[in-house]
Amino acid sequence: MSLTCGIDIGGTKIAGGVVDEQGTILEELRVVSPASSEEAIEDAVAGLVHELGSRHDVSAVGIGAAGYVDRSRSVVMFAPNIAWRDVAMRADLERRVHLPVVIENDANAAAWGEFRFGAGHDVEDLLLVTVGTGVGGGIVLDGALHRGAFGVGAEIGHMRVVPHGILCGCGNRGCFEQYASGSALVREARAAASGGSLLARGVLDLAGGDPEAITGPLITEAARAGDPFAIEQLAELGRWLGEGIASLTAVLDPAAVVIGGGVSEAGDLLLNPIRAAFAAQLTGRGHRPTLEIRKARLGNRAGLIGAADLARI
């Protein structure tokens, strides 16, 4: 059985795992991500591959990288939150690990993982929306990963949805992820708590009275306990996501939309508002087949599993 190594490089951690042809992780390791240094990142990745390869017969390595990756799956052209600018990562790592390496955008890798082994295993056309610090996207059309002409397609978090809106890490204003991400959820809750909103009192109390201690998981916890403010914050986030997904569906017409990322752990507290806003805004609603909006199944391991599987292609 062919074994490959999948690596998921994030802003705070790097995860590596050995994955078989059924998408099962046989061993997994994690290290802190030295995001400020491209050389240190490559050192950490090579170290993970060497350690995992010492115990498993690994034939290739797939890297999920949070940035723009060229169509040849070789060069990381740009990343807003990691020190990558036109980095020939594939060549660098192949010299270090002495194995074939492919580089893939992390959200693309996660979409492929969910398509092959997760919530999208039964469809041929899939849109993955990852909701975490930002908003990521991955698209599978007719059973193939869609990267675009230059390899940088599916950057849905950087659709402009509010002209002259909130400044984004990419340098533009009004990007989707500034309104539909976990960061947006926390920003709005902290602002309400700092402004003395009585509605936010329950969430603020959970945070020990410190607005800066309010986090996405804390808001989800409060919502599960029935806190009206927390429920409304997740509903507002879901509205933004549902309306954005309706616009994307008008272009892509997927059979299913899978919601992943850390905020998806809120479950139906987020998914139901997404579904309601999507149904209200979808072009031609009532006169077209209705797609399913599903929660991701593979969790934060989707990118690792997908990258490992893409290393076989």
Task: Describe the fold and architecture.
It is a single chain. This protein is an alpha/beta fold and 313 residues long. 37% of the residues lie in helices and 21% in strands. The strands form three sheets. It has a five-stranded mixed beta sheet, with helices on both faces. A five-stranded mixed beta sheet has the order 11-10-9-12-13, sandwiched between helices. The longest helix is centred in the last third of the chain and has 25 residues, at 228-252. The radius of gyration is 20 Å and the shape is globular. The two termini are 15 Å apart. The mean pLDDT is 95.
Shape type: globular
Largest sheet descriptor: 5 strands, mixed
Give me the Rg, rounded.
Answer: 20 Å
Mean pLDDT: 95
The total strand number stands at 13
Poorly predicted parts: none
The N- and C-terminal alpha carbons lie at a distance of 15 Å
Topology:
Layout (H helix, E strand, L loop, with lengths): L2 E7 L3 E7 L5 E8 L5 H16 L4 E8 L2 E2 L6 E3 L6 E3 L1 H9 L3 E5 H12 L8 E6 L3 E7 L2 E2 L31 H4 L1 H13 L6 H6 L9 H9 L3 H25 L3 E5 L7 H14 L10 E4 L6 H9 L3
Parallel strand pairs: 1-4, 4-8, 9-12, 12-13
Antiparallel strand pairs: 1-2, 2-3, 5-6, 6-7, 9-10, 10-11
Helix pairs in contact: 1-2, 3-10, 5-8, 7-8, 8-9
